[in-house]
Amino acid sequence: LASRGVTVHLADHDQAQARTAAALGAGTDEPPEGVVDLCVVAVPPAHVAAQLADAMRAGTARAYLDVASVKGGPRRELEALGLDLTSYIGTHPMSGRERSGPLAATADLFEGRPWVLTPTRDTDTEVLNIALELVALCRAVPVVMDADAHDRAVALVSHMPHLVSTMVAARLENAEESAVRLCGQGIRDVTRIAGSDPQMWIDILSANPGPVADLLSAVAGDLEETVRSLRSLQSADDAKRHEGAEGVEAMLRRGNAGQARVPGKHGAAPAAYEIVAVLISDQPGELARIFADAGAAGVNVEDVRIEHATGQQAGFVQLMVQPAAAPKLAASLRERGWAMRQ
Ligand SMILES: NC(=O)c1ccc[n+]([C@@H]2O[C@H](COP(=O)([O-])OP(=O)(O)OC[C@H]3O[C@@H](n4cnc5c(N)ncnc54)[C@H](O)[C@@H]3O)[C@@H](O)[C@H]2O)c1
Ligand SMILES: O=C(O)C(=O)C[C@]1(C(=O)O)C=C[C@@H](O)C=C1
């Protein structure tokens, strides 16, 4: 917001956090002089209602919103406090980090991501419009939903996956070092969010336990079925092994079908890009150089992933490009001296 010319006043119960955010260019930690247009509350879900109530009673802003990961609970808490909620709208940007605090923040975090807005019949149109302006300034994609429908949806796409990631990561806790050192990109993808703050997630899960328990129980059913198939694969009997393989294959194919439904950039269907993998060293400026060389080759890089090699000052950059452009890009980069993965 600050980079788009909005005056942002930062406040936090831990002053050092607001000061750090201000030092990073996110705004000022000085309080505003008068009433502001919009008050954005971004505190752990259990504190949202109290924080909003304080701001509303102090007449801080013309409109109020929160960004908590759950919507039904905070709304009901606010209603119980007897506040006038015409100036409030509950929202949730569907993008985040597994680390907390201003040092983990990035200015482009919400670009192209859904941002849920949960207006009710009581919400002022002016307040909804201010929220839409915020979403547009952050270059996110607004999605209007009912608060409880939102909570059921995020149980499926965020809360249950968080627990499954956590359980996979938990298997590593006491694993042999000789096994853990082999961690590749697959397990990094599956476990990244398991590094999140447990207190924040206790708040989130406490506000949405039923839908998450139902989904986890369905996952437990799939786990049991897959264990049965794998046990059949261990059998000496051909027919049983065949049955086991069919069971595992059916599970893997269901996974393919679900994964294909995960939206790509800007909510569009995932594009089928070709990957051009280039070896880079951990030197400053390597990425900039490779992007400049891709640009010089006249190829648009659609997406990028970086794979770090354990214990080495090197890694692979996966440049995702339109399939037709991949051979041209690979040839041009090779010509400019880059080492490519075949
Ligand atoms: N991290 C994510 O992935 C993500 C994504 C979308 C929404 N959210 C939601 O955003 C909110 C903030 O999450 P975050 O990841 O930015 O956390 P964070 O830990 O980075 O920031 C929370 C801040 O709130 C402050 N704080 C805590 N209690 C407070 C209180 N009572 N009064 C004032 N300040 C208080 C903390 O000092 C901290 O600076 C949460 O409601 C979370 O559910 C998080
Ligand atoms: O990618 C992350 O690190 C997240 O925290 C992401 C994520 C998610 O599940 O997508 C987690 C919780 C938030 O409510 C919104 C986003």
Describe what this molecule looks like in 3D.
The structure is a single chain. With 342 residues, this protein is of the alpha/beta class. It folds into 3 domains: 2-145, 3-Layer(aba) Sandwich (Rossmann fold), CATH 3.40.50.720; 152-259, 6-phosphogluconate dehydrogenase C-terminal fold (Orthogonal Bundle), CATH 1.10.3660.10; 274-335, ACT domain (Alpha-Beta Plaits), CATH 3.30.70. Helices cover 45% and strands 14% of the residues. The strands form 2 sheets. The chain has a 5-stranded mixed β-sheet, with helices on both faces. Strands 6-8-7 form a 3-stranded antiparallel β-sheet, covered by helices on one side. Strand 7 (303-308) and strand 8 (314-321) form a beta hairpin. It is globular. The two termini are 42 Å apart. Prephenic acid binds next to loops.
Numbering strands along the chain, what is their spatial order in the largest sheet? 1-2-3-4-5
* CATH homology-level superfamily of the largest domain: NAD(P)-binding Rossmann-like Domain
Number of helices: 12
CATH class of the largest domain: Alpha Beta
Major sheet description: 5 strands, mixed
Number of strand segments: 8
What gap, in angstroms, lies between the N and C termini? 42 Å
Structural class: alpha/beta
Helix-strand topology string:
HEHEHEEHEHHHHHHEHEEH
CATH topology of the largest domain: Rossmann fold
Mean pLDDT: 92
| Unreliable stretches covering 5 or more consecutive residues | none
